[in-house]
Amino acid sequence: xxxxxxxxxxxxxxxxxxxxxxxxxxxxxxxxxxxxxxxxxxxxxxxxxxxxxxxxxxxxxxxxxxxxxxxxxxxxxxxxxxxxxxxxxxxxxxxxxxxxxxxxxxxxxxxxxxxxxxxxxxxxxxxxxxxxxxxxxxxxxxxxxxxxxxxxxxxxxxxxxxxxxxxxxxxxxxxxxxxxxxxxxxxxxxxxxxxxxxxxxxxxxxxxxxxxxxxxxxxxxxxxxxxxxxxxxxxxxxxxxxxxxxxxxxxxxxxxxxxxxxxxxxxxxxxxxxxxxxxxxxxxxxxxxxxxxxxxxxxxxxxxxxxxxxxxxxxxxxxxxxxxxxxxxxxxxxxxxxxxxxxxxxxxxxxxxxxxxxxxxxxxxxxxxxxxxxxxxxxxxxxxxxxxxxxxxxxxxxxxxxxxx
Amino acid sequence: xxxxxxxxxxxxxxxxxxxxxxxxxxxxxxxxxxxxxxxxxxxxxxxxxxxxxxxxxxxxxxxxxxxxxxxxxxxxxxxxxxxxxxxxxxxxxxxxxxxxxxxxxxxxxxxxxxxxxxxxxxxxxxxxxxxxxxxxxxxxxxx
Lengths: 405, 143
Ligand SMILES: Cc1ncc(COP(=O)(O)O)c(C=O)c1O
Prior knowledge:
Chain A has helices at 5-9, 37-49, 60-80, 94-105, 127-136, 153-159, 182-191, 211-214, 239-244, 279-295, 297-316, 343-352, 365-371, 387-404; strands at residues 18-19, 22-23, 25-26, 88-91, 114-118, 139-143, 164-170, 195-199, 218-222, 233-237, 255-258, 263-265, 321-324, 333-338, 355-356, 358-360, 376-380. Chain A folds into two domains: 5-30 and 296-399, Aspartate Aminotransferase, domain 1; 40-293, Aspartate Aminotransferase, domain 2, CATH 3.40.640.10. The longest helix of chain A is centred in the N-terminal third of the chain and has 21 residues, at 60-80. Helices cover 40% and strands 17% of the residues of chain A. Chain A contains 14 helices and 17 strands. Chain B is built from six helices and two strands. In chain B, strands 1-2 form a two-stranded antiparallel ribbon. Chain B is globular, with a radius of gyration of 15 Å. The A-B interface holds A 20, 341-342, 344-345, 348-349, 352, 359-360, 374-375, 403-404 and B 22-23, 26-27, 30, 54-56, 75-79, 120-121. Pyridoxal-5'-phosphate (PLP) is lined by residues 93-95, 122, 124-125, 170, 174, 199, 201-202, 222 of chain A.
């Protein structure tokens, strides 16, 4: 199937709007993606036609809602090639998923155990582990990175040991776009019996991880970065690991039997799904995955690479512009600064011209410290963006530079 | 005679009303940014950093003849322009007048977007900090 971006753009109503009098150029896709009409419709359809609480009612409406919700779980399982449906836990998003694992391990880890994170994590994938270490007395170690924005795998080799219990790395860095060699990272951790959690928040809209092939222990992501709604995501975990992990929250849905003496927990996945979930969100997430699959993640990836190369080339023609994250393996994200100009100023001016980019530290302050910069301007592309939009963006950056220098 | 906060605000509103579009407004602000009464380097410490800004903002206050003199700086030029406007309004004023002043003029000169929380540029934090200094000095003067 040929990639018809103009046709795809028609699926996204928001792309028709203007911002500050200019057509919207949305290059903040790494923060959240836009939603196609089918996803929006699925939410309306749920509330209009079969809204009911799930897993509880014997009535038809509840069964209908439960079936569609569970079908969404099945879709996630298939999309990422997990082994079992119950290995997919619905959560409110990446942050929530990470916290489930971190909180569970805080009851498993012991003093002297070691956990490893990478130098390019989102705060969501640092803070919960720091809290875990504080609680348990485990020691946090860091895989360093180099100037290009690549992890130093050789250093990883030296900090791995039999004391290592857990390793947390993002699949793709949100601030730099670097695609990390997670398969290698997982393999090496497994040699020491350590478990690995991969934060796939930035990856899943660009590449298709295969959970079984990766042999990953935990993998987490948010629907809203994959054309799905906000407030829903998943935690994938191998069932033998999820089974030993203590539950995160107590409440309805997650129990098997409750007496005042003792509660027995429900089986997976419900053990981790206390309370009424985001039903419409889960359903719409499934629809978003169908949408992405119909276009094809490979087609998306190769088109986005074209955008990335085009924009990189054009940006580098601007004098004094420096790109952070220049590794070979990266997604369509460009983090940059222009010499002598604060990223915040650039972001403010290009916004006036209808161009939405992100500025700041991107919740990855350790990376900014590494480069000794206050932040960057980050342009992140999606498959519905065009080269024409990149041209508009480049002109906006040039104008900002002119005004600000 | 010192101009009142209200009359300075009127003056600024007048100046900004001459511009036809955002670009002229921003160019003017960037220009104003160059005239901020700069905080001395010795005061450019973390104690004087205002939290809640994407760009760094340092603000210092000193009481002179019953009036607060503010000096400041930022690493972002648009933020500096905003500071220049704020200091023009609030510096060299009595604490009680600073406390009583409203800041509706920000809206009227077309900088409303900088009041939004998502901007994280700290205009809100800056105004809050100016007022906190005023409150501190007012209390000090009363005692
Ligand atoms: C790499 C990475 N991890 C975690 C998160 C947090 O995702 P959420 O806010 O959806 O929980 C993000 C979102 O920006 C991210 O980019």
